Amino acid sequence: MATDYYAVLGVRRDAGPDEIKKAFRRLARELHPDVNPDPKTQERFKEINAAYEVLSDPQKKQVYDLGGDPLSAAGGGGGAGGFGAGFGNFSDIMDAFFGQSSQRGPRSRTRRGQDAMIRLEIELDEAAFGTTKDIQVDTAVTCGTCNGEGAAPGTSAQTCDMCRGRGEVSQVTRSFLGQVMTSRPCPQCQGFGTVVPTPCPECAGDGRVRSRRTLTVKIPAGVDNGTRIQLAGEGEVGPGGGPAGDLYVEIRELPHAVFQRRGDDLHCTVTIPMTAAALGTKCPLETLDGLEEVDVRPGTQSGQSIPLHQRGITHLRGGGRGDLIVHVEVVTPHKLDADQEELLRRLAKLRGEERPTGQFAPGQQGLFSRLKDAFNGR
């Protein structure tokens, strides 16, 4: 019976190349003879290598899936019991066991910098209409002494004499497979391929220094708590004078003494006496757009709301603004003198007739006016 290579690696028959490779590497780390010298484990290691040899090669995999002999069809020599053509994938075994990368050569000293973030507090009116702010940021910038190279003035980086500029060193070891060559980053140059004999005294060879600078940020109308504004290229400069990351400005809106924000609408509360609620009045209110009068209609009840359209926050996306919702709170007097109490008793007697809210029976209008004057001390 033909060997089920999918079962050997523990993957489904529709598994993709990445899933097959991941399964092989996991098994190779567990079963490598240098880790587990048991003879049964060595046989199992050969099986997973043979399975990966077939399933990682598109042509061999196609032949195998059609029921043919993939090793014979591809001209492979070893069969399922040996490595044969499997040595073509030997780097995958080394990658799995030693954690190496298939990429070769020195790595660059120049890398992109990290992103940075600061928080900016703004007032409600600034969030509503937008504003411009100057902010202080403390980030890494390119060293002006060495211009990001990391070497002291008059000197430069030199080729590493240990790896000869390759950024890696090789080591030959013996195993049951024979001689095995492995490569690792050079310990002298840390894989860069060059060394800096005389680092820059200003940045200690990093190519960047900390600096405080002032930036001008445009805050668009309609921002809210947590809104982040991206300033491209204003973050941390990378090592070796690499390109800078981005700076994110996170908005924090300060509480307002009068208005509460809910989305793009504003809410506030005005307090009026019961006589004003019964007779109606005009209540002055300082809005974000200036002083306006709120029209309180006769018969307004406590808890009712009066909308002032287009007096809220500017929509961040799209035109227009939210509304200002004015909540009315009617105050009932708790201390009455004799005249006030008498007037209220007379009013209660007159209100014995049922009438729609906001309408007065004959004599009630004048009595309410007298009651209003009494409460106002006139």
TrEMBL record:
Its cofactor is Zn(2+). It comes from the Bacteria. Residues 4-68 form the J domain. GO terms for biological process: DNA replication; protein refolding; response to heat. CDD domains: DnaJ, DnaJ_C, DnaJ_zf. SMART domains: DnaJ. Residues 130-212 form the CR-type domain. Gene3D superfamilies: DnaJ domain (1.10.287.110), Heat shock protein DnaJ, cysteine-rich domain (2.10.230.10), Urease metallochaperone UreE, N-terminal domain (2.60.260.20). It is found in: Cytoplasm. Binds 2 Zn(2+) ions per monomer. SUPFAM superfamilies: Chaperone J-domain, DnaJ/Hsp40 cysteine-rich domain, HSP40/DnaJ peptide-binding domain. Keywords: Chaperone, Cytoplasm, DNA replication, Metal-binding, Repeat, Stress response, Zinc, Zinc-finger. Zn(2+) 2 binds at C160, C163, C186, C189. Zn(2+) 1 binds at C143, C146, C200, C203. The keyword Transmembrane does not apply. GO terms for cellular component: cytoplasm. One of its GO terms (molecular function) is unfolded protein binding. Belongs to the DnaJ family. Participates actively in the response to hyperosmotic and heat shock by preventing the aggregation of stress-denatured proteins and by disaggregating proteins, also in an autonomous, DnaK-independent fashion. Unfolded proteins bind initially to DnaJ; upon interaction with the DnaJ-bound protein, DnaK hydrolyzes its bound ATP, resulting in the formation of a stable complex. GrpE releases ADP from DnaK; ATP binding to DnaK triggers the release of the substrate protein, thus completing the reaction cycle. The J domain is necessary and sufficient to stimulate DnaK ATPase activity. Zinc center 1 plays an important role in the autonomous, DnaK-independent chaperone activity of DnaJ. Zinc center 2 is essential for interaction with DnaK and for DnaJ activity. HAMAP family: DnaJ. Homodimer. This is Chaperone protein DnaJ. It comes from Actinacidiphila reveromycinica.
